[in-house]
Amino acid sequence: MNGAVLAFEASSLRPSVALLDDDGRPLGRWMQAEGLRGTHRLAPEAAALLAAHGLTPGDLLGVAVGTGPGSYTGLRSAIALARGLAHASARPVVGIPSVEAAARAVLVERPAIQRVVVLLDARRDELYRADYARGVGDAPDVVSPPRLVSASTGEPSPHADLAIVREPVPDAYHVAALGRERLAAGGTDPATIRPLYLKRSHAEIALDERKSRLK
């Protein structure tokens, strides 16, 4: 499994970029400071990481990108950047659910945890929920994929070996770590990597409601 992995993650308000070496060790990482907005720093920070280690996109094993669920604009921007970079460099690309990366972070940091439930506010009394179990090494096994649930029934009961993670800030480092093996296997058709939208945006729903009231 030769080559470094570059990853982008922008499902939350704190986008990040990470670079792993040939052995999967972190070479560098950038995460946007709290309070700032937008994804305009993703491309220049990725270029700076590559340049700092004497790498070009063509030297990479491939590119990984978080697919959500999460910020509509952030996901679109990061995925477009990852797909464009992979196309220009003729390197493979792979999409990783951002909630899966968040679950991996918990499994790495807390060895006693065997199950992870990730919860995100989907607004309007709904949650995005994804369930994972500890797999081989630090890779999560999918128990239930990301889905939309009612906020009143979506939270599980706590257990000693269960971590419930609310509103995580997924890190591009974990996106890269999960994507590495999949990139070595050839990656994914770039056209199939799309944001994981489980419902329409709040703005779209609000617009439809206003139109209904005007009828």
Description:
The protein is α/β, with parallel strands linked by helices and 215 residues long. The protein has one domain: Nucleotidyltransferase, domain 5 (2-Layer Sandwich), CATH 3.30.420.40. The protein contains five helices and nine strands, in the order βββαβαβαββββαα. α3 packs across α4 (172-184).
Structure at a glance:
The protein has 215 residues and is of the alpha/beta class. The chain has helices at 42-52, 72-89, 98-109, 172-184, 202-214; strands at residues 4-9, 16-20, 26-31, 60-66, 93-96, 115-123, 126-134, 140-150, 162-166.
Question: What descriptive keywords fit this protein?
Answer:
31% helix, 215 residues, four-stranded mixed β-sheet, alpha/beta, Nucleotidyltransferase, domain 5
Question: What structural class do helix, strand and pairing data support?
Answer: alpha/beta
Low-confidence stretches: none
Q: Rough shape? A: globular
Mean pLDDT: 92
Helix-strand pattern:
EEEHEHEHEEEEHH
Which fold name corresponds to the CATH topology? Answer: Nucleotidyltransferase, domain 5
The first-to-last residue Cα distance is 60 Å
- Beta percentage is 25-35%
Topology of this protein?
Layout: E1 4-9, E2 16-20, E3 26-31, H1 42-52, E4 60-66, H2 72-89, E5 93-96, H3 98-109, E6 115-123, E7 126-134, E8 140-150, E9 162-166, H4 172-184, H5 202-214
Parallel strand pairs: 1-4, 4-5, 6-9
Antiparallel strand pairs: 1-2, 2-3, 6-7, 7-8
